[in-house]
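Quick one, T. Sequence first:
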Amino acid sequence: MAPSSSPTAYRNNLQRLTLTIGGALAFFAALLLAVVAYAGWSANRAAVERERQLVENALDQAVSRVLNEEKAIAWWDDAVINAQRRPLDLEWIETNIGVYFYETYGHDEIYIVDGANRPIYANVAGGLQGDPTVSFSSHADVLNEVISGARGVPNPSLRVRDAAFTADQERYSYLLGASNAGWSAHILTVDGFPAVVSAMAIVPSVDASTLVGEPHLMVSVVRIDEDFMNAVGRTLLMPDLTFSADPSSHSGMVSEAFYADDGKALGYLSWTPRQPGQTLLVFVLPLVALGVLLAGALTWLMIQRLKRASGDLADREEQSRHQALHDSLSGLPNRHHFVERLQEVLDRLVQTRNNRRVFVAYIDVDRFKDVNDTMGHAAGDTLIMGVAARLRDALPPEDFLSRFGGDEFAVLREADDPQAASDLAESLRKAFEQSFDVYGQHIRMTASVGIAMGPDHGLSPQELMRHADIALYEGKNQGRDRAMVFSAEMAAEVEQRREVELELHAALEARELKLHYQPLVSCANGRVTGVEALLRWAHPTKGYISPGVFVPIAEEAGLMPALGAFVLDRAFEEAKRWPGLEVSINLSPVQFRHVDLVALLEDLLARHDMDASRIVLEVTEGVLMESTERNRQILEAVRGLGFKIALDDFGTGYSSLRYLSDFRFDKIKIDRAFVTGIDERKRAMTIIQSVVTLGRGLGMDIVAEGVETETEASVMRLLGVTELQGFFFSQAVAPGEVERLCKSLEGSDRDQAPTVDAERLALRRG
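Structure tokens:
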């Protein structure tokens, strides 16, 4: 193009560019406004539909909850015996069924019908009915619907509500009721009001011979009243969820028709829906419109400056390219540059198909954070520059060294020999042999190195870098200051840990984790004085997963605050079942660092109406070693709430006597390592005797963990231990087994006097 025509052509091009940009901007602006408006409207509509489904699901869960409540009594040998007894033992039935379900679970009406479906017992509003047929007959048609379903003749026109409960029973292998019982539950109209009506066969849980003939049925009516809906609303975070005969007239509330399982209209469920799209409509949409106008104005200004800026951009292009590919602190190539170079090398290897290999090494400076924390970030930057210089000197010029950021470096090497990985590791190790001079201080540093080799470990930069990172992670797990070459086993382990982490997160959200309880037995009278809550995870496909596997993963993944809060909440809830027992709960050091423990405990006390003196919070020495002053304040505040504090696993850590003077404890738990085989270990016996004497002198109870034999139990009693805990008495059991376990231990011979010859024991100790 001729020089004279260049300015004209440039202006014409610029004019066309302006028109094109203006038209495109107008089109996309209108499209953007339409999308924002539609997104806000559809989000509000989807929120209402989602909440409606949540309410329906919550009602299904409420029906399953009623069945679970009935199951606790109906599937019980004693219930079968007493229901079949003639004449009927009204006192037993009233205490264990009528009053129990009314006061404990709020069931409004409870009936028992015999094998011929005749009512033989009725309790209405907590009161025993003299003639059960009178109250039963007032809504016999509704009750007979669920009775027929429990007898195996369900009405196909009724909506199924107990699917979740039925699925849960498939887990049981030994509970007779889960396989032999019949049940049915529906939401129906009772006396003009909605109610959960359920029926469940009264069958034995252990001894099948206790059932004679057709089983009796327990029939329950739970009215869906204001309290019922409030409870449902609380679980869904919908505090204003209400049931009424007519739609709500309040502004902002939605009303959805509520139907019984037989299709009859019951009324309306009303609540204030969340409106996630309101922000888009009220705030974002006007701001987007304003932004479009401003963007148009700015675009016009930018085009005016385009000609002047084009020259400057050309001048800065090379500088920007360099900055984009290099780290500003060390001057080394950065991650992006490293990936580009690695891709070039891999492409060349694929094309040439020779025996050369490419090695990728990840280098992470061990405990670099300690330098930043103790000497400041300026010292950390100085150390990074020193490490970069040391690595440059240690590596040959053909190696490609880069810094990824922080304390992470990477090296790219091409070689013919697969053993070049060990040479590379040795070169990197030598780079850290000498100490680093940082502001006049000589600092000895080490590094962990992970190495991956292509094409053996991958044919893409992403694969090689990920595998080198996995090897680095393995090196750090094995104690740092070492180089590890990637292997398939490492990837499998990392993938397995990641899978467990994801499934643990899902299990925690679904509240699939359970607590089991191991008893603590008094040495004074042999009675169970308390239980320790132990977390259990029964994976649906992997089976039982040990806490020793998933707890460390939870700590690394940041799940421990939520996991600890779950354990506390579940233990508080279940502790109310055993008012005469203390419940011990382990506290993780993470709970002290990441959550407001005192506020959490105050909330749990208020929510569960719990006596704090029944809860023993167990801490390890790891808690006491971190932020001593802060943790002392937390422990004192916890004691101020009324909780008891126990020092767990005493003897396995530093076991500093300073802990016993600086912190106030109610109990010391001696670790199982000292208890196992105690009658043959004179030194361990002497240590325990000293701990008992010291603890008792400070007003503390002494608990021996890991008692597995009668001899160990007897020795612990003779040494003055207060309480015993271990497999000799029982393993941890489910909450429903605690009461039975307490009774069995009280009736066993484990609470008798020690059987070890005291004189022989004294000779061993002496």
